[in-house]
Amino acid sequence: MSYSQKALDLLEAGKLNEFNDKYELALKKDSDDLLYSLAEELYSLGFSDKAKEIYIKMLSKYPDEDELRTNLADILIGEGHVDTALNYLSEIKPSSDAYVQSLMVQADLYQTQGMFEVSTEKLLEAKKIDPDERVITFALAELYFVMRNFNKSIPLYLHLIKQGITNISAVNVVERIGIAYANDGKFDHAIGYLKQIKTINMTPDVKFETAFTYLQLKDYANAIEIFKDLRDTDSQYATLYPYLADALSAEHKDEEALKVAQEGLSVDEYNEKLYVIAAKLSLKLFDEKQAEKYLRKGISIDPDDISIALELSNLLVKQERYDENIDLINSYMKDDQIDPQFYWNLAVSYDKQDALKDANKYYLAAIPYFKDMPSFLKMAALFFREYGDLQQSIALMKNYMELVPSDDEMAMLLEEYRQ
């Protein structure tokens, strides 16, 4: 038995001192082929220092063996010695058999540093040299996937699947292409791949993507089933709760949806989206007090989230709490945080408070945003009629009648103007 094999046996047995002794003997007495195999084994077991020592020893003996340089560079990158690794790689010329591998190592290095363009250049150069190498195709697909450039990653994954390659480097290519299609908004294509994977074999992320894709396709039953399975297997997966609540609400299961939102808040109490969902569900269940509680809590967590403030503003207008609504919206207007609905809500609030000048101002501000909304046009037309701006009232009535020609009451008012 060679010293290399004895060293590995001792390492497997956990006898590190004896392993070191046999390792030193292997360096002195074993053949180069045995040492190279020993280095590969040691690297795979996590003993990169020992592997690096062997590679350096062999490179001094075989300076033309560029594969040793790529192996060394790979180890050095893992140790954080990037410059030294690049020095080894730069010594490998395009004519070398190891050049493609050196490009792959460089691409991986630049990707970890966030230099995606350089990484892409290296992989494209490698693919040009060896266009049929599946590892290069996969690496390029994965890089585009990480860059969220899904329209470029999808054809590469498809190419692998057409070659019969569904698993590579511990990655399920079918999962990848399904997720890529989903992120690219092509949900019909995505589900065709994702549903091929048994739920039991899905990772939490794949379960989420699959359920989310069903949700986008309005297949609420399947979405709910998989979201619930994800919740049962990983209750701390906070992202699932808003979408599970939405799916349940779409199926008119509002009470269960509210419980899901509340459960989600127990997992992530700072998820302002869940506060909005819980508030909307509370309103659907006729609990305005609880809805306001959720909205105010959401605002306290993220005061800059206009969507939450807008929901609270709508509730205050509904409850005819006009002074509170004016104070709420003005606090956002001061910071130039404006949603067009704020104009409409302010106009209504000032109108109900008989502050007609301010109401006029905000109705005028709202018109460009709601000129195709019948409910706004009718309300604004009647306001301007009472305010005395007949020209504006007539213009809005005409717009309204184009959208709702069956409204006899408004038709009669418009006819009065014409007389």
UniProtKB/TrEMBL annotation:
<dbReference type="InterPro" id="IPR051012">
    <property type="entry name" value="CellSynth/LPSAsmb/PSIAsmb"/>
</dbReference>
<keyword id="KW-0677">Repeat</keyword>
<protein>
    <submittedName>
        <fullName>TPR repeat-containing protein</fullName>
    </submittedName>
</protein>
<dbReference type="InterPro" id="IPR011990">
    <property type="entry name" value="TPR-like_helical_dom_sf"/>
</dbReference>
<keyword id="KW-0802">TPR repeat</keyword>
<dbReference type="InterPro" id="IPR019734">
    <property type="entry name" value="TPR_rpt"/>
</dbReference>
<dbReference type="Pfam" id="PF13181">
    <property type="entry name" value="TPR_8"/>
</dbReference>
<dbReference type="Pfam" id="PF25058">
    <property type="entry name" value="ARM_TT21"/>
</dbReference>
